[in-house]
Fold these 3 entries.
Entry 1:
Amino acid sequence: MPNRCIRPGDNPDLTKERETCTFDTDELAANLYGSRRNLERRREISQKVSADPDFADPIPHEFLSREKAVDATAKKSKVIFQKWKNLVKPEEMPHLVNEAVGIQGFPLALHHAMFLPSLNSQADDDLAAEILPRAKAYEIIGTYAQTEMGHGTNLRELETTATYDKTTQEFVINTPTRKAMKWWPGNLGKMSNYAVVCCQLIIDGKNLGPHNFLVQLRCEKTHEPLPGITVGDIGPKIAYNTTDNGFLALDNVRIPRRQMLMKHAKVSPDGTYTPPIHAKLNYGAMVHVRAHMIYSHGHLLARAAAVATRYSAVRRQGRIENGGPEVQILDYQTQQHRIFPQIARAYAILFAGQEVRDQYAKTLEGIANGQADLLPDLHALTSGLKSVVTFMGGLGIEQCRMSCGGHGYSDASGLPKLYGVQIGGCTYEGENMVMLQQTARYLMKGVKWAEQGKSLSPSIAYLGKKSGKSLIGLKGGDITREHEAILETLEHTARRLAIDASQLWEKRIKGGECKERAWNGVTVEMNRASRVYTRLFMARSFHRRLLSSPSSIRSVLSDLFSLYLHYECVDMAQHLLEDGHCNGGQIQYLKKRLYEDLTTLRPNAVSLVDSFEISDRELNSVLGRRDGNVYEALFQWAKQSELNYTDVLPAVKNYMMPMMEENRSKL
Ligand SMILES: CCCCCCCCCCCCC/C=C/C(=O)SCCNC(=O)CCNC(=O)[C@H](O)C(C)(C)COP(=O)(O)OP(=O)(O)OC[C@H]1O[C@@H](n2cnc3c(N)ncnc32)[C@H](O)[C@@H]1OP(=O)(O)O
Ligand SMILES: Cc1cc2nc3c(=O)[nH]c(=O)nc-3n(C[C@H](O)[C@H](O)[C@H](O)COP(=O)(O)OP(=O)(O)OC[C@H]3O[C@@H](n4cnc5c(N)ncnc54)[C@H](O)[C@@H]3O)c2cc1C
């Protein structure tokens, strides 16, 4: 079967890997990206970016100072949003940005991820008509400023206020304390001249909770901060260093009434407040990013898996049998066990990410028609997915990094940066432990609804089912039935953990604790239930994708799905065993199946990551390059280090040489 990545001059080990491929890599890539046409467009964009001299990098970003890297990123962003703007569809934009700029952020990241979505979904018609065309035409750049130095998670305690002044029909926006400064918003520090700012709405002395307001921060002509505004960059971070995450203080800044985002909640000129149809519609921009970040985080893990797999096929170290040749490190079982589950998880996350994006679009449609009934389900799912996927992705990328040995530690591998970017997602858009509790709240309601025989939405329908005995290992031979047996076991486990957590909570309440304190005493168990609910959703989503896949890729997807299920079950063995639903023999069976899966997938490993269809430029990894010619490329990469511009560094000349000289003269 064809692997379409084979080219003359490639590393022969990689070519051999590709020759053993049992499926059509283009078919799988087309399935992943939705269609052949999408795949072709993806390639076209990659090729055009590589050929565009405006995107050329004289030296890799890794060797630039932060300021120079920000500069280079801004320069490329201008090219994207002027020259390229009309050449790509909105849905192709993330790929174009990844190709042209990279993953560490760019001046319009928050403009796209949160500013435009907030205005689109929360501004009333008048404000939208005035500001959206300007924002869409990039006449202005905006961000989303919610988090403060003292509060990020607990939005109810944000301190920034928007106090309505009826006499002038203005809001007075104020930062009352040092820790009330906005702190962290992306692109706030230097790039944005506008922001959606989240403030406590105060009318006649009454606090009506967090609401969003459009605030101009900088002069449109000079880009200087406007009077009453203190704004700047918060400094270097683990990653995202081409993003100017910023601080902001507002000193009684006045804005017109109509700059409150009033599509849902409204304040009339006389100060009458009308609440929204759902109390949390003001939080819509967060749901938007949570729904979209699942897919983009799947892509980050896919990159790491591609780097680790290709490099492991090229790298030869040690022997399996005495007297045999040095083997490709991909032949070690430990290496396969480290990397192959990451390939499977990357596919699983990408599939789940696509499903949740569709669910988000449906929910938004409902809200536009005055129906917010799909929102609780979406909020529970996106909260769980963002937490599970970012954590899983971070662990996975770190496994991939370690699997590349010493070279994985070098920025040349691209893996340290990938890890830094990925783990940001564990914190932003709601700290993971906190968001898992949001999912758990929904599950607790689901447990009650199930007890009362009420109808349940599809994502929690399993809460209303009855458990049979686990058939894992008892349905031998037939892979389809084995998949079903495992999915049923996962359903049982997700249900059992939710019911157990609910009972533990109730027990504490009956024991005299208030609901909230009792909740805090069971949150570890609550979060376990949320994780398994989410992992069940991911497994079900992968299964739906497998069942709807064309026959040409069904077999390889089925192998990958088997590995995914076996790995997840072994990873969650504690939960499967805890209530005796599975026994030790069944866990041993799952492990045996997992080791078989590693062997089954081995010939297709490189081809599976080739189907992620990530160009060399986008991958930005000397170890993961498509042609596998890593050693020469490593040397060429290192030569660009600024420490190599001269043979004798000033640091050596000024300090080390005199020290050695002095010590020699003492002898
Ligand atoms: C094209 C797009 C591309 C995007 C691609 C992605 C790339 C991304 C690049 C990187 C960008 C990074 C940008 C980062 C941005 C940020 O981090 S912005 C700041 C994000 N901040 C947070 O997420 C804060 C987390 N905190 C909260 O969300 C809330 O405070 C809370 C924890 C949810 C609690 O809120 P609170 O008001 O106290 O509510 P509760 O009492 O807990 O709950 C009451 C009920 O409301 C429900 N609920 C809560 N939130 C929502 C929601 N968003 N939607 C719907 N419903 C919600 C909650 O479940 C409760 O329901 P009931 O149980 O029924 O009462
Ligand atoms: C890379 C990056 C980009 C960001 N971009 C933006 C942006 O564009 N705009 C913006 O407004 N913000 C942004 N943020 C801020 C981000 O949204 C917050 O940092 C995040 O929501 C976490 O809030 P916190 O910092 O207050 O953490 P804290 O809430 O202080 O968390 C600290 C610890 O306390 C625990 N904790 C807190 N509350 C609870 C609870 N109720 N139950 C159990 N444990 C709890 C947490 O689990 C965590 O372990 C960004 C952050 C990062 C890292």
Entry 2:
Amino acid sequence: MLAILTALTVVLLFWFMWRRPRSKLPHIPGPSGVPIAGNVFEISSTFKLVQKLHEWMMEYGEIFKINLLGKEIVVVSGSLIGEMLVTKGSDFADRPRMPASIESLEGNEVHLALRNYDPKLRFIRKLVHKGLRQYGEGMDKIEAITMTEIAKCLDKIEQLGGADFDPFTYIHHAISQVMNTMVTGEAVPDGHPMLNKAIELDRLDGELSQDPTIVMPLMGKLSLLFGVGTFSKYASAMNFFIEHWRSYEATYDKENMRGLYDVVYKAYLESETDEEGIKISYKNVKFLMFELYSAGITTTHKAIYSFVHLMVTHPELQKRIQAQIDDVIGSQRNPTTADRHNLPLLEASIHELLRFISHVPFAFPHQTNKEISLGGFVLPKETQVWPFTSGNHHNPKYFKDPSSFNPDRFLENDGSLSSASSRRMLTPFGAGTRNCIGEVFARTRLFLFTASLLQRFTLLQPTEGKLNDIDPRSEDFLKKLPCVCPNYKIRAIPR
Ligand code: HEM
């Protein structure tokens, strides 16, 4: 009996091997994996995925392939990231097909981050850039919006009288309010359900990033149909925001643009087109706004939350930044974006924060839209490619002693900020054709928030318990995407 079973197993194994589709990328090295499943079992969580990608990068070099259930994916690091995203950016600018569940939410028409680089995507990116310049990046506007919300947030922290607290919600509400103002022209009143809904959305986003059923056809549809599961909760949170913004349509006035929603809504109403004759649909308006809103909150909030933790565990650095703030700004006026150039240590700390935590570890997946060569290999059309930016950020070849948080690495001997060209391996926002659309907006908010916080408070260890150094490679940190440090408490003492 045992002999028969063994023989059967061997036959089945050979059959599987024989049936295994031939690799489309035979010359690209990579871990072999097991028949059918490929490398799936080795990367069953975000933590394991990042850890394994790093190991494989060290073993196979700047370009290697992995196999997920028969789907081959090319993972790229080192200078090949620049070649892929910038030099050959438009050839790598498509996205692979989105997860099945999201498809059931948005229908066949995807809107921005997951859309191929087609004429409509180009039109949408132009439109969003225009809106962001007016309502997010335009310096006067962003300062006015951001500083009001930061001041409210810091006042609330001051009212705690130096008691232990978790800054998570304080930062989240402030960042959400900046986004609310950017989208509609006004913040919502304190205690408005939008604020806690945004926290819930963030949590659901993180849960979905861990949920393997997201790639299964039907799962999304069933979740929506029966109103159960994370996916259905996510859809209802999304509709909550969309309905809130729709209520602004009743008071829309084309002579008085209030925010990003009006800019995009106007383009839809007036059938604005670009030189390629593209128009946007009403569905685009709603989903676009939602994508920008959720992307704009979740990433920036996580970066600031990690920054606060790092300031507490690096008190000497905190003092040095505060000394520079005192010299350049003093205590009588608010920080402005113009101060960025005069606060190189804070700027370097923000660069180092984004390198160190790398909270979007492999950017978004890209896909080739024609046959193209990279790193000496020919990639066929429709090859999925991941730029492993966190691999570069934590590679000792590019950043000495990468697991230590050391902003001085971005400073010259005279204390000035290192040149942009010397930071070319630092790409937390991606780069090139599909780079992050909110980079300027995010960097400005990060600067204004952190400068204002350190101008006003000294951040200290809590009275109960102790914060240890963040380990951005730990399982705790890499549980969800975007990655964030586990919850913690600190004290904020007015200076
Ligand atoms: C610290 C903050 C942020 C980080 C680290 C970050 C990072 C990224 C990364 C790595 C990508 C993928 C780039 C690629 O595909 O190669 C991306 C794309 C994107 N980001 Fe951000 N982001 C941040 C803030 C924001 C903000 C504030 C917004 C909106 C206001 C935003 C909206 C988007 C959108 C819409 C895309 C998709 C662009 C496209 O597919 O063409 N992000 N971001």
Entry 3:
Amino acid sequence: MESSSNSSGAPPSHTVRSNNNNNVVINPDGSDSSKIVEGEYGFVLEDVPRLSDYLSHLPTYPNPLQDNPSYSVVKQHFVNEEDTVAQTIVVHEDSPRGTHFRRAGPRQRVYFEADEVEACIVTCGGLCPGLNTVVREIVCGLYNMYGVTRVLGIEGGYRGFYARNTVSLTPKSVNDIHKRGGTILGTSRGGHDTTKIVDSIEDRGINQVYIIGGDGTQRGASVIFEEVRRRGLKVSVIGIPKTIDNDIPVIDKSFGFDTAVEEAQRAIDAAHVEAESAEHGVGVVKLMGRDCGFIAQYATLASRDVDCCLIPESPFYLEGPGGLFEYMEKRLKENGHMVIVIAEGAGQNLLSESLPNMDDKDASGNKLFQDVGLWISQKIKDYFKQKDWVINLKHIDPTYMIRAIPANASDNVYCTLLAHSAIHGAMAGYTGFTVGPVNSRHAYIPFQRITEKQNKVVITDRMWARLLSSTNQPSFLGLKTIQGLKIKQEQKQAGSC
Ligand SMILES: Nc1ncnc2c1ncn2[C@@H]1O[C@H](COP(=O)(O)OP(=O)(O)O)[C@@H](O)[C@H]1O
Ligand SMILES: O=P(O)(O)OC[C@H]1O[C@](O)(COP(=O)(O)O)[C@@H](O)[C@@H]1O
Ligand SMILES: [Mg+2]
């Protein structure tokens, strides 16, 4: 096969000029692999590392995709090397061009020959619908698009690299796994040991590492990448973002989220049927969402049967004017029944008042929460009992049932695109990135942008207002807080004019 040599030389650590004369800042403080490219009119590219940044004279090869009969219909075979995806697409005349990410997709030249690739896949953290689809599509995509036949499955999450045997994954062995929930590879929390993991990668001759997981996993992937780079290995480290909670920033949404919202409808429907069939019926549905209430918010908006949605981002209170109990009394008088949806991370401040000193963490260091569904159900029962109201409360907790199902059709397609974007990036020699859609276009995003903060429901956005207007619930914000938010909003608008 034809090969050409890349001569980028020794690891750069300063500002250099790119092909199109932009400023490129690589490793500004020497501590990480940030690559910021600054262009005209406020254009900023937050680029991702490439193997050639730290390995010199790497040969490249023509991309085999151009000879693939299935792709012969494609008009433009390859993504232009200079293509980027804008993070902000709502702009006005004077807006700077703003932050961009490198566009995902197949490149004209690749850094790996098919028979050179030793890929591996690992799934980490909590379950999420679609994990098996991503695994399947990495295996089949590598095989069908690039002729790669050697893919290993790492079992049981990060610790599987050094504590378990691997399984060989072939298009045949993964053929129908997308129809099953969970992950055929198994998963775990904790157990991240960077040195042991990279030793295992080196010992097994692995040169493409596909890591599927949430924010914790991507933090782990980032340190694996740094260690791989420090050792000077020709190994691409690619993160594929996963979380049912949808709390990963920058990307449009995470896979499995749509499936979760859809499945949550069944629980809300059941709660509604139970509630409306009884006198003063109250249905309480607990949904997942450790630090953010996206599943609860979207499930509520989709259902239209929910009277109150409680999420971690919007603090609430039970007693007194404007509180939950007052609203419940009003709603039960008006309508005879009501449905409450609560995200698992909501109201934890109130719970810790009743149950102090609960500071347990899981093996990954995530805080373990008290069961807010049980807690609020008991509080509601106690309140109405002392008021001599007979209510009929049914509490439904479908959380793990929702998480354990296979992905729905749209999540399956989304998982396929994620897997393909990840493969194209790895084959093109990109590394140290997470893949995901930004404003509907798949992009390669530096790890630190994914791990530096969490995506949250913004309660001053129109979407939350839509929810409030659909449920008619109180905002639980005091007059002072609302005024404060308004002033902030006005100051922001004045500043941007
Ligand atoms: N800061 C970190 N550095 C290295 N590994 C981490 C870090 N945070 C979490 N991990 C590892 O990532 C894996 C998944 O993390 P976890 O928080 O459980 O799930 P998720 O990836 O879904 O957020 C675990 O094996 C954990 O040890
Ligand atoms: O019982 P587990 O496995 O610790 O999972 C519970 C947590 O997993 C989640 O579903 C998702 O968390 P991750 O994104 O960290 O996997 C949370 O909503 C929930 O709090
Ligand atoms: Mg997490």
